[in-house]
Design brief:
There is one protein chain. By secondary structure, the protein is an alpha/beta fold. The protein has one domain: Rossmann fold (3-Layer(aba) Sandwich). The protein is 37% helix and 24% strand. Helix 7 links the parallel strand 4 and strand 5. InterPro entries: SAM-dependent_MTases_sf (IPR029063), Small_mtfrase_dom (IPR007848). This is Methyltransferase domain-containing protein. It comes from Algoriphagus aestuariicola. One of its GO terms (molecular function) is methyltransferase activity.
């Protein structure tokens, strides 16, 4: 699937993608600057999309590190499976609400999310954030890309520590929230 097909899929499913464009390289670099991927054993990505963030994680992840990518759009999943055939990468075509089924009690060093929390139903959002918090290792972090500063209040309900950063170098400009 080419970039134009992915863009068509993105705009056809705005209610689940919640994005106007794919994440820029600058945004990916900003998000991942708050991680230490080369020492991570288990990383979870929520909302793989076109694989922009996935690619950035893989470039930094050691070959021993495992990456689980959750994506509900089957076209995106199919494209990412072709794009990322590495044995330590698993593309999971399922909702992030079900992450505990795939983690099987293991704890993640990092959870990286580009999910559109602002448009997801409250119950879905609460379930994903609760399971994310519970899935993190003791020193783990959840790094979230969002377009809304107001989601800070929501994330504070689930995480005791929260840092907010901003980048203009994305269309539209985005916030990066680091939760732990």
């Amino acid at each position: 699937m080419g970039k134009s097909d992915l863009l068509l899929e993105l705009y056809s499913n705005l209610s689940t993608t919640g994005a106007l464009a794919f994440s820029s390289k600058a945004l990916v670099n900003k998000m991942l600057s708050f991680t230490d991927m080369e020492h991570a054993k288990l990383v979870v990505e929520l909302g793989g999309g076109d694989g922009s963030i996935t690619q950035g994680i893989i470039e930094r992840l050691s070959p021993e590190g495992i990456l689980l990518v959750f994506e509900i759009n089957s076209s995106f999943c199919e494209s990412m499976r072709k794009q990322f055939p590495q044995p330590n990468v698993r593309i999971i075509c399922d909702s992030a609400e079900n992450m505990d089924r795939y983690l099987a009690g293991k704890k993640a060093d990092y959870i990286v999310s580009s999910l559109p929390f602002i448009i997801l139903p409250k119950e879905t959002t609460d379930e994903i954030l609760s399971k994310s918090r519970d899935a993190l290792s003791q020193k783990g972090k959840m790094v979230i890309m969002t377009y809304s500063f107001h989601l800070k209040r929501l994330f504070r309900r689930f995480f005791t520590h929260l840092e907010v950063k901003f980048t203009f170098r994305n269309l539209p400009p985005a916030f990066v929230m680091i939760c732990h």
